[in-house]
Design goal:
single chain; 233 residues; mainly alpha; Leucine-rich Repeat Variant; 13 helices; 71% helix; elongated
Length: 233
């Protein structure tokens, strides 16, 4: 790490420390289920404000990630250059995922813009650790929300959703559901139909978790349809 990067990392950490909130730090675990070994306690808006003028900076992002601080890693995901993110970096960062917030933020702010995202979705869905598998479906959801990728990739994603819909671990279950809803609401019309068919099959499953995933997604689709009908001439 160069002296310049060390100084810039120190500047970011000092900015985060100035933005710290005892209340945010105290509520991270009990209220929001965010558990991190090294956390300062900074609101998302403050982290975004710190990151905004720094983008893009791949070297700084890598150095911030290596500090191990939760907030520094959040900022890292916001300042990194997706064009420079390698598959190896994605795997290395994924190994460090230890709470749902860092998973979702990294996927939403960075990984969903990386060209090899769908390859990682496929690989990570096969993992057995909770946050690794969550990362697969959080990434799939973020790609669908931002409409990145072709229909064939999302059809494969729906197959992964159906295969993992019985995983009852909370952070996996919610990410699987998120991905199903995202495809059913944000993707192409053909994919929306396919997602709704997937949800219907899951809703009829004998497995409790799969059934919950299907029924919850179907309720989300019904609410969206109701809103559409209300606004139609």
């Amino acid at each position: 790490m160069t002296a310049d990067i060390k100084d810039r990392v120190a500047d970011v950490l000092h900015a985060l420390e100035r933005a710290t909130s005892a209340r945010v730090r105290e509520e991270m675990g009990p209220r929001f289920g965010i558990h991190a070994d090294k956390a300062i306690g900074v609101q998302m808006a403050a982290m975004q404000a710190i990151a905004k003028p720094l983008y893009p900076d791949h070297a700084l992002a890598s150095a911030l990630w290596e500090t191990g601080w939760y907030e520094a890693r959040m900022v890292a995901s916001m300042v990194d250059d997706p064009a420079l993110v390698s598959p190896e970096q994605m795997d290395a960062w994924r190994l460090d995922f230890d709470n749902w917030a860092i998973v979702d933020t990294v996927c939403a702010k960075l990984f969903d813009r990386v060209p090899h995202a769908f390859a990682k979705i496929d690989q990570w869905a096969a993992l057995n650790d909770e946050f690794g598998r969550r990362a697969a479906f959080a990434l799939l959801a973020c790609r669908a929300i931002h409409r990145r990728g072709d229909d064939a990739e999302y059809r494969h994603g729906l197959a992964l959703i159906e295969a993992c819909a019985t995983d009852e671990r909370n952070f996996v279950k919610k990410a699987v559901n998120w991905a199903l809803r995202a495809i059913g609401l944000k993707a192409s019309p053909a994919l929306q139909t396919a997602a709704r068919e997937t949800a219907a099959r899951l809703a009829a499953s004998t497995d409790r978790t799969a059934r919950w995933n299907g029924k919850d997604a179907m309720r989300a689709f019904a609410r969206a349809d109701d809103r559409t009908s209300e606004t139609s001439p």
